[in-house]
Specification:
It is a single chain. This protein is about 40% helix and about 15% strand. It is built from 13 helices and 9 strands. The radius of gyration is 22 Å and the shape is globular. About 25% of the residues are buried.
């Protein structure tokens, strides 16, 4: 169903009855419905949680089927340089802590995924991609490496057969280290996955990457209108000016100055979406705060000041890991 483009008159009539004369703003809408909206000439803005999750807050990837809106969205695109800067910062941060784990023998890292996900759907066949049905492709992708590291998805289940298969290939180690710590290491030369967004992130850490199927989301790196490509946008969603600007081609809006915004504080979008959406960044945030507390404590030697510091950080971020540190201090 997800990629289905077969014409169904009742489906088209139903979608038209619901959305006629509307501008649709959707969150990870199924491709088949976006296709119908486009065929009916109904404008939409579709939002997708960006696969780049190591910045100080989450960001959305956004597209539209209307060139007027898409062109405005491009004006807010997150510069690639800023993503590279944050990746370099994390690499430096983790290399100082992961030195003892780095080996001389080069390794390839394979990222596991949940058994069912929209990114696992093969658009040509409609089937869910499973590595056990494409063993030769995987074996070709790891050629030249004597060490294979397998990082299971934290929500994976029923992958015993995958584990058995990987172990049959030789020197395979199951790892549970933080993803960003691993892709900061020099001995991990290549990262492989079916369609994990982690591959898009790994490129910013200088790793060779290989998708066995396709990228989890088709990102826009240029400046041309292409409704199939999603634009990374960072924190502008908290701005009245942003929404007034991008919606203006299709509905009357009242513009506001750019300074009318709630953006800025760390983890604002993460916190608004719930603690479950920290993913691997939870460990990044935790380690950095712990480092700062250690420095602060060694300088002043006052535990009560550290507790006040932790309490302040918790009220700014609402990170439960920080609260746990505060309770233990």
């Amino acid at each position: 169903m997800f990629y289905n483009r077969e014409y169904n008159e009742q489906a088209y009539q139903y979608i038209e009855a619901v959305f006629k004369d509307s501008l649709v703003i959707s969150y990870e809408m199924d491709a088949c419905i976006l296709h119908i909206l486009d065929e009916l000439n109904i404008p939409y803005i579709d939002m997708y949680i960006s696969p780049i999750r190591f910045l100080e807050d989450q960001l959305f990837s956004v597209t539209s089927n209307k060139a007027e809106i898409y062109t405005k969205l491009l004006e807010y695109k997150l510069p690639e340089e800023l993503i590279h800067m944050q990746a370099n910062y994390l690499k430096t941060f983790y290399l100082m802590r992961e030195a003892q784990k780095i080996q001389e023998v080069p390794a390839v890292l394979f990222l596991g995924q949940t058994p069912f996900d929209r990114s696992l759907i093969n658009p040509e066949t409609g089937e869910i991609y499973n590595i056990l049905n494409h063993k030769q492709e995987f074996e070709n992708s790891v050629k030249g490496f004597n060490r294979i590291l397998y990082k299971r998805h934290p929500k994976a289940f029923g992958d015993d057969s995958v584990l058995d298969y990987l172990k049959s290939l030789g020197d395979v180690k199951i790892v549970d280290d933080n993803f960003y710590a691993m892709i900061s290491r020099h001995d991990i030369k290549k990262v492989i996955a079916i369609s994990s967004g982690g591959l898009i992130e790994a490129k910013y850490f200088g790793k060779e990457t290989q998708h066995l199927l396709h990228e989890s989301v088709n990102l826009q790196y240029g400046n041309d209108f292409d409704k199939e490509k999603y634009i990374n946008i960072y924190q502008h969603f908290f701005s009245l000016h942003f929404w007034a600007d991008i919606l203006s081609p299709y509905i009357p809006t009242t513009d506001y100055p750019p300074e009318y915004t709630l953006s800025g504080p760390k983890n604002k979008l993460r916190n608004s979406r719930g603690h479950r959406d920290y993913w691997g960044y939870q460990d990044v945030d935790h380690e950095m705060i712990k480092l700062e507390v250690t420095k602060y404590n060694s300088k002043f030697g006052l535990n009560n000041i550290c507790k006040k510091f932790l309490r302040l950080i918790y009220h700014l971020t609402y990170n439960k890991k920080i609260f746990e540190l505060y309770e233990k201090s």
